[in-house]
Amino acid sequence: MKKHIVLLLSLGISLVPSIAGASTHAKSLQNLGMDEVMFAQMMIPHHKQAVSISETAIKKSQNQAILKLSQQIKGAQGSEISQMTYWLKATNSSMSMDHDMKMSGMLSLKELASLKSLTGAEFDRTFLDLMIKHHQGAIEMLDLISDSKNAEAKALSKSINSAQSREIKTMKQLLKKFE
């Protein structure tokens, strides 16, 4: 046994981080209930759509402010998707809801197809209008976890609210340039 420990230590391998990681993950699941699970099941596809819309903007827009905003949205929401996916996997919950739930701010297939067909300033203006609508929907959905007893869910709610409120303000300012 001593030889194994010496070998692990000589290779720079420690068991402590994995124990600390397990403790951190266990804390993140404390008081994680049905509201948080349902929120994750709804917000993951909502965020995936925002990432997809942002990727379209990255490909189509020439506006530097929109490109920067799209990268920011894609990065932040990608991280949040990972966080909520962890919640669902760790609680052995379904990755999606068993029934269709109308999510506020989700774009229709028609809106998505229309956006993809646009170019130039018309694309930029429509992207901003639709992403504002999408973000406002996400903020409405935060009601589900805003009073969560789970510290991580409560922090995520505050973070999403802050980031998306700030991004809505930025998008509204950008829209004024198209008037």
Describe this structure in words.
With 179 residues, this protein is mainly α. It has one domain (31-176): Ferritin, core subunit, four-helix bundle (Ferritin, Up-down Bundle), CATH 1.20.1260.10. It is 75% helix and 0% strand. The protein has seven helices and no strands. It has helices at 2-10, 16-29, 34-60, 64-90, 109-117, 120-141, 151-176. Helix 3 packs antiparallel against helix 4, helix 3 (34-60) packs antiparallel against helix 6 (120-141) and helix 4 runs antiparallel to helix 7. The longest helix is centred in the N-terminal third of the chain and has 27 residues, at 34-60. The radius of gyration is 20 Å and the shape is elongated. The termini are far apart.
Task: Please give the domain count.
Answer: 1
Compute the number of helices: 7
User: Distance N terminus to C terminus?
Assistant: 74 Å
Low-confidence stretches: 1-24
Helix and strand composition category? mainly alpha
Q: By CATH's scheme, which homologous superfamily applies?
A: Ferritin, core subunit, four-helix bundle
Strand content: under 5%
Task: Give me the CATH fold name.
Answer: Ferritin
